[in-house]
Amino acid sequence: MSGDSPDSRPAADGGSPSDAGVPEPDPRPAPSEQPGPEERDHPTGRRNLEGIRIDPVVEAEHESRRAVISALVEDEPGVLARVSGLVSRRQFNIESLTVGPTTVDGHSRITMVVEETDPGIDQIEKQMAKLKPVISVGEVSGNAVTAELVLLKVEADDPAAVHAVAEMYDGRTLDAGPRTITVQLTGDEARIDDALDAFRQFGIIEIARTGQTALARGDTPTAPGEKPGTAGEPTTHDD
Amino acid sequence: MSDTAAHPREDDPEGSEEPTEGADGAPDGDLDETPAAGAVSTGAESVVAALEAAGAETAFGVQGGAIMPVYDALYSSSIDHVTMAHEQGAVHAADAYGVVSGEPGLCLATSGPGATNLVTGIADADMDSDAMLALTGQVPTEFVGNDAFQETDTIGVTRPITKHNYFANGADSVGDTVGEAFELSRAGRPGPTLVDLPKDVTQDETDRTPGPAAPPAGTDPDPNADADAVEAAARAIEEAERPLCLFGGGVIKAEASDTARTFARTYGIPVTTTMPGIGSFPEDDDLSLSWAGMHGTGYANMAITHTDCLIAVGTRFDDRLTGGIDTFAPEAEVVHVDIDPAEISKNVHADHPLIGDAGRVIDQLTAAVRAAPDAEAWRERCAEWKETYPLTYATPDDEPLKPQFVVEAFDEATDDDTIVTTGVGQHQMWASQFWTYTDPRTWVSSHGLGTMGYGVPSAVGARVAADNMGETDRDVVCFDGDGSFLMTMQELSVAVREDLDITVAVLNNEYIGMVRQWQDAFYEGRHMASDYTWMPEFDKLAEAFGALGLRVDDYDEVAPAVEEALDYDGPAVIDFHVDPEENVLPMVPSGGANGKFAAAEDQL
């Protein structure tokens, strides 16, 4: 580096400040003499926006997909704020987030439905795992059991028809007034979507949805390392 | 920030809790019966006992109402306290103290404005993964949420910029919480932590001495990388024709500089660093290509563009390093060593992710790589790039003093162990380009956040750290810009009061120079809000603070002034009036290809 170059030291002694102190010219190529950007060799390879080499490896364009992420967390103040703050700050696309207790006192489960590329889903899991109250986190495998609860209020112009549709989708009527009927629906996403389509004919006035929550099927733990148990039994993973 | 609702005002000098009044009398209240070492009587004493047990030696801070119980407990503590002029000064000083010492920095502030004044420095430490603990006062628990005097939701404000933060919820547990927060800050990937301390928690009685401090479960990761991944990475390194090491700040934080140096030299692999990685590899080594990125050397950027195997250790592939991701090391198989799994493939895909401690994983690689890659031709090519694209600057005699010359003059006049701190801007780039760094923990700067004003307070923290380590002979030189200096120069008062031997070199171009450079390059020279048409005389200002103040306008004044300032036993400021038109080069335009850096303005 030029710091080692003796020729750039000031002249040892006096003369007028304006010239005698001026350093000797540097013999190495001045910036303006160095080859410009177009005069240099450039590699032909490229990376995609996810930093993956396109050439010579497969051209991997990641499509975004829906994923259900389940996290077992310590139920301490601010844990939901930490998770939701992380999601918004890192611009993860999230469809829903639910939170509730588990079989263990002091533990909660957070279930998020996200729409992300595979690297994006990977980042969500890794960033979540860094939060101190998060005990374990992972994507619930594709055949997870998922369900959502929806309350919807429709016009009561034709109560019999509303009841018939509710029955068709295993819904429950929670409130029936002279002008509105409120129905509760549960089920997976496809079932809920179908039901809402059917109710639209009556005129939906208001709707409230909990968002999807999920558990893994069979013996598979929902969050990695989680040991499924019954209420009262500890389900923590081994540290 | 000393005014509080719950305490005597400053105009009440008789107040029994007035901090300065207690100094020459016996501490009042409980402290009259100072308990035996280790035993505590209040939450605040428990806090201080936890800090002492964790090894904290120095705290930087500013007093104030809600933190007063903690300060009162510090009165009889072994922990030194440096009173700063502003909380931002305290947090930067603590940050720099941590960088130089390798121990977590410690800073204190009161609630409300005290805490919010820490925010910039906490964010800075977060971006640069610096271990630090911030303790903030808070209004009493029963007032929290009521918008009480000097109340801010400090936990909410600092949540996204801390590794973790804690709201202390009782005198019995607060010591353990503080101990855990201190240890967490340096566990795994370091970062800042914060404990918010409501005044009732620190004032309440407790006899519970905090237990041994440890980071929370699961936050101290396995230092060793997966053995199969190490083997695969080793094969990639053996087969590489154009291997390149990229050492980041993580190498220094892991105390792995020696290991990393041996690795590169053993296998003959050229080395470039990131900016935070400066000092991890000696820049006067034949294998060194200095640092890469936006204003990195041309040869580092050529090498990183053409490498076929990038061994990246302790770096998060910041955009200022990578330039456009599409053209970053586009033909390289990437071996990425990092302690934080979330950094793997975050910005650049890692073909060989090695999650673990930098030093341990390099040891694993050293054991696994059976033969050095055949890279003689590549090393020659790197040497040619060093010849073709040297860092040089012109010194025409009809142009004013060049700032690069000042940096070189200081480098020439000081030893290798000199600590350099900087603000942010052009001067920071020249200080990193034209100084030849050879040792870790000698480069102290604000990288990820780019905090103007980091220079003077970080010089204070660096000086205190070096003195604590018994290295009082080391020089501490702060390169600052005129803009950066104006933001935090009040901390000179601390340097004078504490008699700290620092030298501040203001490279004064009467511009926010980096902005001016960008305006010239990308905004048709429209100098909106970058042109400082009037500047104070910094040499006289320094004298007013009680420091040595010098002014330099010409080349032949540089060496004598540098010598005088370095010889001066105490803080010195030299106001170097440098060429206002000088630009930082080379430069990779934002999002551009590293290999297409502009060596000169007309190449932009």
Quote the beta fraction of chain A. 25-35%
The CATH level-2 architecture of the domain at 65-139 in chain A is identified as 2-Layer Sandwich
Give the strand tally of chain B: 18
Tally of helical segments of chain B: 22
Radius of gyration of chain A: 31 Å
H/E element sequence of chain A: EHEEHEEHEEHEE
Q: Please indicate the percent range of residues of chain B in DSSP E strands (runs of 2 or more).
A: 5-15%
Question: Would you mind describing this structure in some detail?
Answer:
The complex is a heterodimer of chains A (239) and B (604). Chain A has 239 residues and is α+β, with helices and mostly antiparallel strands. Chain A is built from 4 helices and 9 strands; from the N terminus they run E-H-E-E-H-E-E-H-E-E-H-E-E. In chain A, the strands form 2 sheets. In chain A, strands 5, 6, 7, 8 and 9 form a 5-stranded antiparallel sheet that branches. Chain A has a 4-stranded antiparallel sheet with strand order 2-3-1-4, covered by helices on one side. The two termini of chain A are 50 Å apart. With 604 residues, chain B is an alpha/beta fold. Chain B folds into 3 domains: 183 residues, Thiamin diphosphate (ThDP)-binding fold, Pyr/PP domains (Rossmann fold, 3-Layer(aba) Sandwich); 162 residues, 3-Layer(aba) Sandwich (Rossmann fold), CATH 3.40.50; 183 residues, Rossmann fold, CATH 3.40.50.970. In chain B, helix 1 packs parallel to helix 6. In chain B, 61% of the residues are buried. The chains are: A alpha+beta (239), B alpha/beta (604).
